[in-house]
Please model this.
Amino acid sequence: MNRRNSIIVFVIVAALLVFAAGNLRHAPWTGSVARAVAERGPLSETERANIEIFEKVSPSVVQVAAQSTTNPLSEESEGGGASGTGFVWDNDGHVVTNNHVVQNASEVAIRFASGEMTRAEIVGTAPNYDLAVLRVRSAHTLPPAVAIGGSADLKVGQFAFAIGNPFGLDQSMSSGIISALKRRLPTSSGREIANVIQTDTAINPGNSGGPLLDSAGRLIGVTTAILSPSGSNAGIGFAVPVDIVNRVVPELIRYGRVPTPGIGIVAASEAVATRLGTEGLIVVRTVPGSPAERAGIRGVDISSGKLGDVITAADGKPVRRLSDLTDQIEQIGVGKTVRLSLKRDSAARDADVDVVDIGRMQ
Model:
């Protein structure tokens, strides 16, 4: 065989081998054996910490389903009911959730992480803080209460974790950081919750009432709202700080309600004060028989439109809007006295005003 024929034979044989190899790779009897599992190293420290938080807390996180004829304020409303999240507060069967989850509810059901379902009764609600306490009617085994942390020493940038039921997907965990502190959040009652926690931890409809946790798995807040044009997580969620929760919940368990500290005034909005170029809180009127009326505080003269008293400080702290005053009054508490700095025309004076439960006055 000459050199030219040898080259031709070599090329043909090579082509046949390539063709045969391709057919073998796709033959039905090849690839029938599972591939070997690649060995991985140990979980990272962060992964182990996250897993530990979920395994410790998730059994104590429940789904709350409220049946009502109308619940327009709940973003989770669907078919005459609302679905949210709650968590076990103590060993007596109390569960904490958001007020807007159970508002106007005729019946409330709770589903535990184990799948067990039971009825619950509403023990008390605090619309001013968007908090509610339920009591489980019966449960075979009650999960442990979620450990309580603190919110006064929180720092922007520290890790935060949420466990809840977003869109009804139970036992979902998300993580992020604390994005900001001391936010103000309006409630359906017309008041604002002060010192609210802002987080980029994913919070969606269905998470409402669930726990916001620190890296030790302690409760630092109760997730309550999101800021999103679409209604889904946009990286801005809010939680009621645990220091408020730890003060309000025992009151709800004991009395079914929380006193609303106040002095009995109706105040003008910030926009009105800005338009008039007035620094401070404009008193529109005082409630008849209220501590403010007894202290001689005067509202706007309706006939002439002349301003009465403008509150500029409470116990020495500046008052620029209503929430500044309500924050200070809440810290003082019912049964005590607040010293108000007032301005009327060009004259300034101080007045000591009793703090009462204005909820009893309505």
